[in-house]
Write a structure and sequence with these properties.
- Mean pLDDT is 79; it is low at 1-9.
- Helix content is 57%, strand content 0%.
- It has helices at 3-7, 15-41, 52-70, 77-104, 110-130.
- The protein is mostly helical and 174 residues long.
Length: 174
């Protein structure tokens, strides 16, 4: 069954989001395979769990998980934005670890160059994906991070909040 069958006429507005999300997830899987190939070209001891290649695998794993989670969050803007930020942070960190791996790597630099190109391809696809997020499909976030504060319910704003209430000894004791 393809997207047209699954989403039908009423789901037309979601097709770009889901199509791009699937493309990003596929690109993340490809990056994982490339990073695994890079790892195989290194001689990494079991004690070296903080080796840049291992950290890159962690980054792409978190990225994949956040992209998978986004599939079901397409109608909650602030949740999508939270996942998008985590994808961006992990892919940026992956690029840093890629540079560090290049400092350790003594073999053919082709893996590194291919991964760099794929990360850039991922970034460009990511930009297209976040453009499909629908800010009107949301509800107030109790952390007030990605919502317009003017949209918050009036009872969400606590005018009696005093941060000193949370300090030790604020109640007169201790």
């Amino acid at each position: 069954m393809d997207d047209d069958d699954f989403f039908g006429a009423e789901g037309e507005e979601w097709k770009p989001f889901h199509r791009l999300q699937r493309q990003l997830a596929k690109k993340a899987r490809e990056l994982l395979h490339l990073i695994m190939s890079l790892e195989a070209s290194f001689e990494i001891g079991e004690k070296e769990r903080t080796h840049p290649v291992h950290l890159m695998m962690e980054n792409i794993s978190v990225t994949s998980a956040k992209l998978s989670g986004a599939k079901v969050l397409y109608d909650v803007y602030h949740a999508l934005m939270e996942n998008a930020v985590l994808v961006k942070v992990n892919m940026t960190e992956l690029k840093v670890q890629l540079f560090a791996a290049g400092e350790f790597y003594k073999g053919d630099k082709e893996y590194l160059d291919i991964i760099k190109e794929e990360v850039e391809s991922f970034r460009l696809l990511f930009i297209q994906w976040i453009k499909t997020f629908d800010k009107s499909k949301d509800y107030p976030d109790d952390w007030h991070l990605f919502n317009d504060p003017a949209d918050f319910p009036p009872d969400d704003e606590d005018g009696d909040f005093d941060p000193r209430d949370f300090l030790p000894g604020a109640d007169g004791g201790d």
